[in-house]
TrEMBL record:
The keyword Methyltransferase does not apply. One of its GO terms (molecular function) is oxidoreductase activity, acting on the CH-CH group of donors. This is Trans-2,3-enoyl-CoA reductase-like. GO terms for cellular component: endoplasmic reticulum; membrane. The lineage of its organism: Eukaryota, Metazoa, Chordata, Craniata, Vertebrata. Keywords: Endoplasmic reticulum, Membrane, Oxidoreductase, Transmembrane, Transmembrane helix. Residues 60-136 form the TECR-like N-terminal domain. It comes from the Eukaryota. The keyword Transmembrane helix applies. It comes from Macaca fascicularis (Crab-eating macaque). It is a multi-pass membrane protein. Pfam families: Steroid_dh, TECR_N. GO terms for biological process: very long-chain fatty acid biosynthetic process. Belongs to the steroid 5-alpha reductase family. Residues 212-322 form the 3-oxo-5-alpha-steroid 4-dehydrogenase C-terminal domain.
Amino acid sequence: MFKRQKSLASERKRGLFSQRATRFILRDDMRNFHFLSKLVLSAGPLKPTPAVKHSKTTHFEIEILDAQTRKQICILDKVTQSSTIHDVKQKFHKACPKWYPSRVGLQLECGGPFLKDYITIQSIAASSIVTLYATDLGQQVSWTTVFLAEYTGPLLIYLLFYLRIPCIYDGKESARRLRHPVVHLACFCHCIHYIRYLLETLFVHKVSAGHTPLKNLITSCAFYWGFTSWIAYYINHPLYTPPSFGNRQITVSAINFLICEAGNHFINVMLSHPNHTGNNACFPSPNYNPFTWMFFLVSCPNYTYEIGSWISFTVMTQTLPGGLTA
């Protein structure tokens, strides 16, 4: 009987020990589960693996024909849809080095307009094979060169007449007659006008990176240089007659000339930095600058100021060629 009681006591101890052990295990499991759930919640939702997209790039085949003979010059293959006419010209030059990009003009059909360099192949392609006609445009010059030549010439030509070099005027007559003050003022105003042109061409205007035929350079220079020679010849001539109304006419005209020059400059600066609304460029509007208030009256104040400058110069010097230039 004593042994039986002893065995019962030992079984109770074992039961109590197993219950305590089970409680400790459950507590540890609960702690681990609680920690794991916090870890999962802090990690956030699982992000799906992005699917790899295989882009299919469409390629075109460009057939280039001579616009005069209609004969095939070359075929450019593997031209992407995002390629522009400028890119096609570059590839065409690599395939046929004698066709320089600035001299070649590409057309969709003979006699049609030349395609701009920024046009994409996708916008003109009707199928995977695109036929273009190439034309040699002749010797080309950049637009920056054209403008610099136009404005540098008058600046130097006027100074040659102002100095009264012997090959233009009679040396004895030039030495005998002194220059009227308006002659010096006219030289100053004329130089200011073309120096402003040169500086705006270099630092203000956004000149196109394209090219133009050499004949356009010759035509433009002939106009500007010819009118400058005509104006300068009469104003700097030893027999030049000063304005009829004297200093009052000269002073008012000179002030008006400088105002128009300043207005022209401010308008050009504004036009080179247009306002943007979204993806569209808005037409400039007047602001705090009084010179921009001309927008209330005309749509292109720069031309208004330009005409005003030449009219003021004409009245100041009282010469006909200046008025015809305006």
